[in-house]
Design a protein that fits this description.
Elements lengths: L2 E5 L5 H19 L16 H4 L3 E8 L2 E10 L5 E8 L8 H11 L3 E8 L3 H14 L5 E5 L8 E8 L5
Parallel strand pairs: 4-5
Antiparallel strand pairs: 1-2, 2-3, 3-4, 5-7, 6-7
Length: 165
């Protein structure tokens, strides 16, 4: 299967907004998100991805079909953070997420971090395996709990080596 990342152009922001609704729907089971009176989930950072140069959103495609998205941002210290990562259910468990994650990391060499909720069992299986296979060195793992964070979770920090494109 041919997996590609395609940066989201501003004119395709509504498509990303639609996918974020599916992402929030999946997360509603983990985090207890509620719908608004209009029947949608609130995601307050979408516009930031189109006005802040430190943020990047990409669509994931699998054999040309829309399959999900990645959203990353560069922190003040230069670390790149995985803000959101989503593969639609139809495309899960086929290696698409892994291929997309590798491509996402390779877009920006250097330090990376990501966090996942302990209650997100698929992420708890996925991210340690993926980061261990792409990291240049040891992946640092820190478990975090309230009140330091909103939800019990794990923070992974890794270094990604520059590769030829």
């Amino acid at each position: 299967m041919n997996v590609e990342l395609d940066p989201v152009a501003e004119q395709r922001k509504p498509v990303l907004a639609n996918l974020i609704q599916l992402y929030c729907y999946d997360f509603s089971e983990i985090r207890g998100y509620d719908l608004t009176a209009h029947g949608i989930f609130v995601y307050r950072y979408l516009d930031h991805y189109f006005v802040e140069g430190a943020r990047e959103a990409c669509f994931i495609t699998a054999d040309g079909a829309l399959a999900g998205f990645t959203m990353t941002r560069r922190l003040d210290d230069g670390t790149r953070e995985v803000s959101e990562f989503f593969v639609v259910r139809r495309h899960r468990h086929h290696g698409i997420g892994q291929d997309a994650a590798y491509q996402m990391f390779r877009r920006h060499s250097g330090p990376w971090q990501l966090a996942f909720d302990h209650a997100n069992h698929p992420a708890a299986r996925f991210w340690p395996r993926v980061t261990a296979s792409i990291a240049d060195g040891v992946v640092q793992r820190t478990d975090r709990y309230p009140p330091d964070v909103a939800y019990p979770g794990t923070l992974l920090r890794l270094q990604v080596r520059e590769t030829e494109r």
